[in-house]
Amino acid sequence: MQPQRSGSETLSGEAAAGRIDAAAARLGEAQDAIAEVIFGQGSVVEQAIVTLVADGHGLLVGVPGLGKTLLVETLSRVFGLDRRRVQFTPDLMPTDILGSEILDDNGEGRQFRYVEGPVFTQLLMADEINRASPRTQSALLQAMQERQVSVAGHPRPLPRPFHVLATQNPIEQEGTYPLPEAQLDRFLLQIDVDYPDTETERTILLKTTGGEAQEARPAVTPEELLEVQELARLMPIGETVLAAILDLVRRGRPETAEDGRIAEWVAWGPGPRAGQALMRCTRARALLQGRLSPSVEDVGALAGPVLRHRMVLSYAARAEGIDVDHVIACLTAPLG
Known about the structure:
- The chain is of the alpha/beta class.
- It has two domains: 25-220, Rossmann fold; 237-336, Magnesium chelatase subunit I, C-Terminal domain (Helicase, Ruva Protein, domain 3, Orthogonal Bundle).
- The chain has helices at 13-35, 42-53, 68-78, 94-98, 134-146, 181-184, 198-207, 222-234, 239-251, 260-265, 272-288, 296-307, 315-319, 324-332, and strands at residues 58-61, 83-87, 99-105, 110-116, 123-127, 148-151, 154-157, 163-168, 189-192, 266-268, 312-313.
- The strands form four sheets. The chain has a five-stranded parallel β-sheet with strand order 2-5-8-1-9.
- A hairpin with a 4-residue loop joins β3 and β4.
- The longest helix has 23 residues, at 13-35.
- The two termini are 22 Å apart.
């Protein structure tokens, strides 16, 4: 059975295997460099790297103090990306992110000059994105989707690569503006950051409270990241994996769910963008692990990060204490 093609080119033969091995080796060096600073959190680190390799944006969800900001800073150093951070607050305006035109007197007369905002970077950390007003959130999410901003009617392309890693506190919701589902859908993955296990927390206490803090070392250049992203786009996907993705997404919608429980629990299921995200992310995960093509196991491993912010549960599910991760576990059970 022939694998599905991506674009006008595909990867095949020994040359493809060599390129994939080289890319996997570089990404492995990046993982090792991150592990010198970020202790434990293996799945979180993997999902963050998958987000970059798949050329997407990620939403980091976790309580304060779990290292979300440190993770973004470490990623920027390891991948050699220019990084900026914006602390989102209710009074933040779109121009504070996108930039604005100012009236400048350069000696030859007054004229407007555009001053770039912090969005003109390669890796933007949007800290506590749900604390900004919907108007400011929309400005950032438009830049994420279109990879350009329009100021005074002039489109201005953003740098390449360009990634947004936003953070969100799942506990404190007072005075926040939760992202609408249509805007959440723009994030490739929702990466849940949980508390570390006992041994990892012991390591954190010992290695971060004495002497100088460990700084991340560069491992991959932005140019190499762009090459890896292009390589991931060219990876073939077999019919079995394609069918698993299509079946998973469609079974998550109440209109086409085969399981009566899913139809009862889900009010709004994942759209086609969820399937696109799974296609991109399974390719990236396979490349990260040095494999020539994705497997069904990749689909199961990434179903949670891809689907959990793209599904809305019904009142009946919430009344029964059902959460979205339980629903996703039921959906992925047939994958083994």
